[in-house]
Amino acid sequence: MNQLPVIRICLTPALYPIYRDDNSIVVIVDIFRATSAICTALHHGMTSVIPVAAIEEAQKYPGNGYIVAAERGGEVVEGFAYGNSPLSYRNNPEIIGKKLVLTTTNGTQAIAAAGNAAALCVGAFSNITPLSSWLIS
Fold it and tell me: By the 8 A CB rule, do 67 and 99 touch?
């Protein structure tokens, strides 16, 4: 008899250790900011996204085809041109062909917490159809 998949919802990165199962597929959903910004950046021409937990880690990447973005408390961190707003990456010719290094208050913290999962992906309204199809398959 096939066992049905189990869906668990963890509302904050701080609670992830309680739910952690390294054999699971983890979908990070930070709908209005981090995951939507990631999907938007990729859709509008960035080649990849490197989510990092710490501002200091993000600062190691400037130049050489990287755009470094940092947000804390809903605001762009001082010294960074970009934060976690999807609108920053929409129809922006400056980002085309570049790699995004992104650190945010919650979304990238959740990605970092789930880094050992068997599979890790991001969910947003903009990728719900392909993400759902992939998860079902």
Answer: yes
Give the residues across from 67 on adjacent strands.
Answer: 100
Amino acid letter for position 107: G
Please tell me the pTM assigned to this model: 0.88
The 10s digit of each residue's pLDDT in 21-69 is: 888 889 988 877 999 999 999 999 999 999 999 999 999 997 889 999 9
The residue count of the chain comes to: 137
Q: What's the CA angle centered on 22, arms 84 and 19, to 5 degrees?
A: 70
Report DSSP state, residue 74: T
What is the tens place of the pLDDT at every residue in 92-112? 999 999 999 999 999 999 999
Dihedral, CA of residue 103, residue 106, residue 112 and residue 116, to nearest 10: -150
Q: Which two tokens stand for residue 28?
A: 């990070």
- Locate 125 and state its tokens: 């309204």
